[in-house]
Design goal:
heterodimer; A: alpha/beta; Dimethylsulfoxide Reductase, domain 2; Rossmann fold; Barwin-like endoglucanases; 3 domains; 5-stranded parallel sheet; 19 helices; B: alpha+beta; Ubiquitin-like (UB roll); N-terminal domain of TfIIb; 4-stranded mixed sheet; elongated
Chain lengths: 522, 352
Amino acid sequence: MHEIAGADFILAIGTNTTETHPVLSLQVRKAVKEGAKLVVADPRRIELADIAETHIQHKSGSDLALLNAMANVIIEEGLWNREFVEQRTEDFEALSQAVKDCTPEWAAETTGVSAETIRETARAYAGAEKASILYTMGITQHICGTDNVLAIANLALLTGQIGRENTGVNPLRGQNNVQGACDMGALPNVYPGYQAVNNPDMQQKFEKAWGVELSPKAGLVVGEMMDAAYAGTLKGLFVIGENPLMSDPDSNHVIQAMDKIDFLVVQDLFLTETAEKADVILPAASFAEKNGTFTNTERRVQRVRKAVEPIGDSKPDWEILVMLSNAMGYPMQYGSPGDIMKEINAVTPQYGGITFERLEKQGLQWPCPDVDHPGTKFLHKDKFARGKGKFHAVSHVDPDEVPDEEYPYVLTTGRRLFHYHTGSMSRRAKGLAEAYPEEYLEVNPKDALKLEVETGGKVRVASRRGEIEIPIRVTERIQPGLVFASFHFRETWLNKLTNDARDPIAKIPEFKVSAVKIEKVV
Amino acid sequence: MSEVTITIDGQEVTVPAGTTVLQAARMAGIEIPTLCHDPELTSPGACRLCVVEIEGMRNLPASCVTTAGDGMVVNTISPDVMDARKTVIELLLANHPEDCLTCERTGQCRLQEYAYHYGVRGDVFHGDRTEFPIDDSNPFIVRDLNKCIRCGKCVRVCDEVQGRSIYSFAYRGFDSIPATAMDESLAESECVFCGSCVSVCPTGALTEKMMHGVGRSWELEKIKTTCPYCGVGCNFDLNVKDGKVVGVTSNAESEVNGRALCVKGRFGYNFIDHPDRLTKPLIKKDGEFQEATWEEAINLVAEKFTQIKQEHGGDALALFSSARCTNEENYLANKFCRAVLGTNNIDHCARL
């Protein structure tokens, strides 16, 4: 993370770091202060754009056109790193062909950004000594999210801006332990350490470690579970520390799906919107009431330490899981999270050397295969995980839903500085709730004029899936035709509007583009 | 890198060229008092508390802005040095409300600590006193400029670390204060309440509002942990008294963030013991939740899941794990889902 401050060029695309990763944004500010060139690409004029040399305010859902046009410039103008491409990559031809017609002039129309700006950005990125790309869900929450990421990777491979200090392709993870949850196999297709469930060797390894037969069939992702519940094939659901009713797209569909589930168990700190639907609620302990580890966005595993006893009869999630497992006839015996970590060490190569004893002194960045390994600061130094870096030919597609006469506006969603996810924690934190008590919709002055609504006035926003009422804030930070709000607030239940169309590979829903209509509430 | 050797209080110290006398002394384990100095910030040499005597120099230089020169002979505790420091503290106390009895910073106030150490009382100089209204216009930070000693750390940390420059010095001489733009309250300013200024303030001028009255610094146990909000992974100290989390303070040893935090990390903790917390297992009967024992709840869940598994197969079950839970818990959730429920239907909110 501190590496960001050492870059001399930063492209921050689809990431609102000052609000979503405030402390990381300090590193970006530091880099700028020390002379780095910052380019912010975001359909909203986010705060970081204020300190950027260039703000590319492209249309929501046009990232791929922008990125491919940058690749086009880098190839056409001979700015690519021949040595790096020859030695460390493959399939350059495929990319070269794919972006041949993606000229900046072509992209200008799709993105709404001038060809000259695209050219300058591409040149600056390729010409920088140490260029870093930061991205988050502005890139991934599209039906072409995977391709967007591949297009970013293409740029890094083309220019060799990867595998060295202060460079790279840096996705910033949104939640405290989203990295760790992925690492630990809270995913339908992989065991801990990204070992595929459909790989017979891995299946055998875990069957041996756990002493049971395991299924080689990859499971369902969240959205697919909802579809299965709706279809009636998913009968029982166990939700731990999640609130899909508010966090998942097309909430009305999620609510209907939840209603069809025969038996719903929710384990949480609070009676969330999802918990209200449960048949059984198990009270869980908060982070302050238990021991364990979180893994941050830079793969750094750090200690969580118990400061107080669990409130009431609540228990840490791990204890509840142990009780439940024992009750279902599969014995689990762990005295502490440290014991669980020992088992993680044994079956997860990347975590092989990450022990509580070592973490007592300092965090460790995986891969850390054994107890003598110091951890790994940055990846892809001499080779990529798959050997050679592969270029992928990817091309622009329109969002699943584009504005039309009936639904003329584009709604894009995100987060606010003072709140977190569905607000179950932050809205109960006294100061935060007081400082930011309600949500509003960002609307461009031109649109506000058309709608005849001023800041503070209420509008009804409707999509093909649902509707909400929400006050507006008129701001130049948003472009005409685009509106923005966060999904933290139940009173303005934003995900009733969003589209559950998903990227076919990563299965990430397209939260960033939904077509909506807006009218003044009188 | 070239090195220089200097003598401090009779002790020879070899340090890299460019090291200040203050740093050299600290490297040698010799403590010099400071108020305006901070190792992470630029040094204005403003408070003059760190003065030392250096052979061959006419007056007493501030050690934080004096570069160690080869062969320098430094005395940090000469009578002149001690006198000068006392005078500095006496002057500061001449315009400082001595309400240590109720001041939130008591016990960790640098001014209080030095006044005690140097045996200084506040009744030496008598002159004007500034009177400012207390700014508690926001939920997070109480700003009492009557206790401000103009060290300028808040100005520098906001500019140099946070890059926001909410404060700068306004007015002149005796009237100068670290002010927001147009001298408005913090609530009216562009402040985002990261609280960095609170974490560096040496006195009670800037304090955490929600920590007022909850306990004296020496009563608080500090437990270092990792923030439960975003993925940056900041560390901080949970401040605990009588089994209750009463505050969050920076821990300078944090690898990722040092003392920097954001408003959520520093001030977003009191969901922990919010009255809405679920404290008992609940079972829904006839549409109403009823309290249950752990045994009842666990047995019911085990029975129902087993029944569904037997009747419809493991794939009729699914588990949402959590990006808020620990690694150990996610590991167990993954094991429970695959080995016990018998399905790979496990996911979490990574995509949201």
